[in-house]
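explain this.
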Amino acid sequence: MAAPDMNDTGWRDLFAVPPGIAYLAGNSLGLQPLAARDAVNDELDEWARLGIDGFFTGRRPWLTYHERLQEPLARLAGALPHEVVAMNTLTVNLHLMMASFYRPEGRRQRILIEDAAFPSDAYAVASQAAQRGLDPATAVVRARPDEVIETLEREGESIALVLLGGVNYLTGELLEMAAITAAGHEAGAVVGWDLAHAIGNVPLQLHDWDADFAVWCSYKYLNGGPGAIGGAFVHERHGGDPRVPRLAGWWGNDPATRFEMVPGFEPRAGADGWQVSTTPILSLVPVLVSLELFDRIGLEALRERSVRLTAYLESLLDDVGVRLMTPRDSERRGGQLSIAVEDAAATAQRLADEHGVVCDVRRPNVIRLAPTPLYSTYEDCRRAADALSS
């Protein structure tokens, strides 16, 4: 199939794309926005020039720097600005959210996750159950994405928390987040989402869907750099309630009293009240740079291009004859196509060494190909398919 006759968007020129490489691993680590280097150096210069005063003076005072990310993050999450916060990393945020929202009581003790949940999520929920004196073998229940609602209808009285990936990391399937959230609430459970593979990839409406909380990382589609600061969403009905239990730290304290150094914790309203530690400024900077690109381009335009790229790649993979694990309906998937191969590690190494195609491996037999709309091209897709057929 010939590539669609479309003009280059020019977005690729905003990123440090390795020369000669077809980079299809943006679902694992996004490429560096070119503006990130200068932006980080600017803050290093501020540190050298101002020292401690950088928290309060300078062009972008560090004390409130994280607030600069709230509006662009809210637009990507479909949230109100005070419902989102950039902080910590994904699994740390997940533990913080479960400390507040996983409250097993009576018969309602179990956590529902998907059968192919990301291992870190599975570790986290099992450890949270164990911390509460429960046996993870019975406290954690798994279901296929297409069985989640049925499981809630059948076993909802025993489920305290539903925690699922918005886009499944292994298959790329986009879950029906609105319907699952409603079903979870109907069953009396709290509903949270891991958006590691969803934010910056697919449209989200967390506030309108009435999700209780969500967490994400920023180094995949948000291009924040390796180990970049993550983020969290807390619906305003919880964020405005100081009675909601939480693991507290001084950065979540009301700024009006934060520096009084008194022992009593006064949580800041909104998602900011779940912060624990001082914001790592140098980790925030590349994320803000990337979010500015999302605002300039718009997620709608990115999603449209993502759908076209994956459709083109799908047609090429069909010609090659590989087995696609990702749903074929573009409305039921994100920007990733997963394929089954006999030896994923060896195949991916061959693609990289012999063809310059960089993809992601999930052992033993899954390769994930993610043509990211900001910087991937139709030629990248064609190179990947040709490499698989050789």
Notes: Residues 43-294 form a domain with the Aspartate Aminotransferase; domain 2 fold (CATH 3.40.640.10). The radius of gyration is 22 Å.
